[in-house]
Amino acid sequence: MTSTVTPAAASASAGADAPRRRRPRGTWLLLLAPVLAFDAVLFLTPLGKLVAASTHGDAYQRVLKDPLVSRSLLNTFEISALSTLATVVLGYLLAVVIWRRGPLARVILFALVLLPFWTGVLVKNFAWAVLLQDNGLVNTALQGLGITDAPVALLHNRFAVVVGMVHYLLPYAVFPIFAALAAIDDRLELAARSLGAGEASIFRRIILPLTVPGVSAAGLLVFIISTGFFITPVVLGGPGDMMIANQIDFYARQLTDFAGASALALLLTVIVSVFVAIYQRILRAGGEYEAG
Amino acid sequence: MSSLIASVPVFVFLVVPTLIVLPMAFTGSRYITFPPQQLSTEAVTGFFSDQAWMSALSASLQAAGVAVAIAVLLGGTAAVALHGRTFPGKAAITGLLLAPMIVPAVVLALAFYQFFISVGMVGTVLPIGLAHAVIAVPYAFLTVRASLAGLNPALVRSASSLGAGAFSVMRFVYLPVIRPGLIAGALFAFSVSIDETVIALFLQSPNATTLPVKMFTDIQYNLTPKIAVSSAMLVTVATLGLLVQVCFTIRRRSVARLLPLTAPEQTG
Fold it and tell me: Per UniProt, what is one Pfam family of this protein (chain B) (predicted)?
């Protein structure tokens, strides 16, 4: 197998030899046509209909004047920012610990991160609802340790939403931060140590600055995913924790105001797209950073 | 060393909620607490004899079947078509192929809801499966593309110069290389579909209620052992997926290989 060819070298040789290619020219277009047709009909058309629906009447003005909408936009921002902060801090800790281990321990620890990654949100939310209920494990432990006498309300509030979201989001933060750590040249640490640097200053002056692109990528990725949360606020939150996705659902399925729901959906898409664009810019800048 | 100790509670936080659903499925009481008071298989047998849960399970499997078949076929062919080829507009096409991963699920749910009503396709599992296929195609595309990264395009050219037709090139050059990518893509597509809730919630009907939709509805009223049984099944699927992924990782000797597969997705 020629598996040692790097993608860069492979595409370079493809470019150089392109005029001499003997493969039938149309084959690749035939291979590409089905997926393009599929996405045109089942992805672009529904989104196009959504855009069209949002322009009916004064949907945008109506939606933007609704105090419930501004409330859920504010909720979305607050909950997402809080969850992102907690996720990135905990994710950094996990990534560093995994990075410091040998190859076998790395695989095992990664498996621990990947198990919840593979598990659907409802399973996780259900588990948290059981753990955080009044007679749940957490409350029993708190009372057993003598921290409280009566059950603390841990469920159906913002705390539960953030716990559920951080649990869901953690793997998404661990991977980019780990990638940034793995890209660090070992010799830097060695050199710093030989010059008398302690653990703390190695971390503060070498590792932390070199992982900034990974951390920003992780933070943005997690924030992007946060803004679309729908299930967790319903299962773990209270009536005051409605996020923008729930508002869209409310407009569509309760009010049957599809123009309003579509306008809100487009608003959410635009917000997310802006963050995705910044995220991709950071990823690209991070790549140059590693190369240089 | 201190970071290792500090990370233990975080790992516990990460893993425990996933694992406790297994013992909870074998609880004897009607309402759920953890740890379970007495053990019994009542909930499990109850789950499998419950008409509503069984039809939800069947709806989920049908939708996943549609999503996996379409995702593997279309994602695979797209990756092969674009492999080792540079042309103007390639970035735009790749962007279009990956775009369903970025659009929030609730936005897609609303778009699909209005679209399928307008074309008169409601009340069956098929629209749910098709919608899941839309979000699963990018995963299959990415896994197959990742498996093609090691294939030298010169191999394809030499095969054709030796007289291999398009079919033989596909069968003898591409297929052996992309097989792991196809398997991983099928697994991702299955996992995406079996857990997807928001789109299935919008497209549900009495005849087409998937497992997560049934769970979502039930969780809001009662934490019953049947939800735990359903959760335990989904965790089993997740564990199988994880095992396959870890095997791939060990074989490739690189954790970094996992990274392209962990793109933005889903809604919590």
Answer: BPD_transp_1
Return the structure tokens found at A23. Answer: 């493969």
For residues A220 and A173, give the distance between their C-alpha atoms in angstroms, rounded to a whole number.
9
Asked whether the beta carbons of residue B194 and residue A120 sit closer than 8 angstroms, the reply is yes
Cα–Cα distance for residue pair B229/B49, rounded to 1 Å? 12
Q: CA-CA distance, A3 to A11, in Å (whole number)?
A: 14
The Cβ of residue B40 has, within 10 Å, a number of other Cβ atoms equal to 14
The H or E element spanning position B19 is helix B2-19
Interface membership of B64 toward A (CB under 8 Å): no
**Closest by Cβ to B74, choosing from A38, A50, A261:** A38
Give the model confidence (pLDDT) of B38-91 as tens digits: 788 888 999 999 999 999 999 999 999 999 999 999 999 999 999 888 888 899
| B8 has a pLDDT exceeding 80 | yes
* Cβ-defined contact of B97 to A23 (cutoff 8 Å): no
Name the β-bridge partners of B39: B27
What phi and psi, each to the nearest 5 degrees, are found at residue B208?
A: -140, 75
CB contact under 8 A, B220 and A235: yes
Residue among A45, A50, A230 minimizing CB distance to B267: A230
Prediction ipTM score: 0.89
User: Does A107 contact B at CB distance below 8 Å?
Assistant: yes
Q: How many CA atoms lie within 13 A of A144 on its CB side?
A: 7
Task: Tell me how many residue pairs between chain A and chain B have CB atoms under 8 A apart.
Answer: 320
**Neighboring chain B residues of A258 at a CB cutoff of 8 Å:** 110, 114
Q: How confident is the model at residue B31 (pLDDT cuts 50, 70, 90)?
A: confident
| Residue B177 to chain A, least CA–CA distance (Å) | 10
Which chain B residue's Cα is nearest to A108? B246
- B61 at A interface, C-beta within 8 A: no
Residue B23 and residue B35 in contact, taking contact as beta carbons nearer than 8 Å: yes
CA distance A280 to A258: 32
Backbone angles phi, psi at B20, to 5 degrees: -70, -15
Give the span between the Cα atoms of A272 and A248, in whole angstroms: 15
Of the partner residues B104, B134, B250, the one whose CB lies closest to the CB of residue A272: B104
Q: Do A7 and B149 lie within an 8 Å CB cutoff?
A: yes
Reported as a single tens digit per residue, the pLDDT across B148-201 is 887 887 888 888 888 888 888 888 888 888 888 898 899 989 999 999 999 999
What is the rounded CA–CA span in Å between residue B25 and residue B40?
9
Q: Point out the residues of chain A with pLDDT beneath 70.
A: 1-25, 286-292
